[in-house]
TrEMBL record:
<dbReference type="Pfam" id="PF14269">
    <property type="entry name" value="Arylsulfotran_2"/>
</dbReference>
<dbReference type="InterPro" id="IPR053143">
    <property type="entry name" value="Arylsulfate_ST"/>
</dbReference>
<dbReference type="InterPro" id="IPR039535">
    <property type="entry name" value="ASST-like"/>
</dbReference>
<protein>
    <submittedName>
        <fullName>Uncharacterized protein</fullName>
    </submittedName>
</protein>
<feature type="signal peptide">
    <location>
        <begin position="1"/>
        <end position="22"/>
    </location>
</feature>
<keyword id="KW-0732">Signal</keyword>
């Protein structure tokens, strides 16, 4: 880790702590600081309108980020994925988005590769949120968890929504710090229950648990 990277962490903490103190935020916000504090680049990327970062960027704009992760890191570049909750600023009408950013470490430039939104569903999370590249999904699918909003969405490599999920009835009835999807199988100790309803002569509904 070189000098400017170390500086990045301090810059991040000072910016976010100042924001939190002035906004009087919930414990979730402090937890988020701890997590993103390990991402050495974020403090130096242009993540807000202040434009005080060391990196030049035309189209990268994020704030209140969550679940930031580094991929494919080399001495020259890396890819950064994060849940962008700039909508939390209230000056930004949202929506909350998933962001994939290419960071050129040599020329200190960053640009957006993907910005994920569901055009049919304008979500503005109050807290939390997650971003996962799905392993072995053929094309690179991505899963967003919307934090304080009990929803998840899977996007294909072109940014189209291919799966929508909701696990709470109302907007604030449940929340998830992070949502992950993995291949899973299990064998229960009991036999599956199956209910068969021959609804018409050519159609049968099966319900199983
Ligand atoms: C990392 O690199 C591999 C190989 O080039 C590529 O398939 C994959 O999409 C990259 N991952 C990200 C997050 O960019
Ligand atoms: C079975 O199908 C019939 C005909 O569609 C329907 O009226 C009935 O409600 C169904 N029963 C259940 C338990 O789903």
């Amino acid at each position: 880790m070189d000098i400017w990277s170390t500086f990045g962490i301090f810059a991040l903490f000072s910016i976010l702590t100042r924001t939190a103190l002035s906004a009087g935020n919930s414990p979730w916000v402090y937890l988020r600081f701890t997590v993103v504090g390990y991402i050495r680049l974020l403090g130096n990327l242009k993540g807000d309108d202040d434009n005080h970062g060391d990196f030049k960027s035309e189209n990268v704009n994020f704030a209140w980020q969550h679940d930031a992760r580094i991929h494919n890191e080399t001495d020259e570049s890396l890819v950064l994925s994060l849940y962008n909750n700039a909508a939390m600023d209230h000056s930004d009408p949202g929506p909350s988005t998933g962001l994939v950013i290419h960071v050129d470490l040599v020329n200190k430039k960053a640009w957006r590769i993907q910005e994920l939104t569901d055009p049919t569903d304008h979500i503005v999370s109050a807290t939390q949120g997650s971003f996962q590249f799905l392993p072995n999904s053929g094309t690179e699918h991505m899963l967003l968890g919307y934090g304080s909003i009990p929803k998840l969405k899977e996007y294909d490599g072109d940014g189209n929504v291919v799966l929508r999920g909701q696990f709470g009835k109302d907007t604030f009835s449940a929340n998830a710090y992070r949502i992950f999807k993995f291949p899973w199988s299990a064998t229960p100790h009991w036999d599956p229950a199956l209910f068969v309803n021959h609804t018409t002569s050519h159609m049968t509904d099966l319900y199983m648990s």
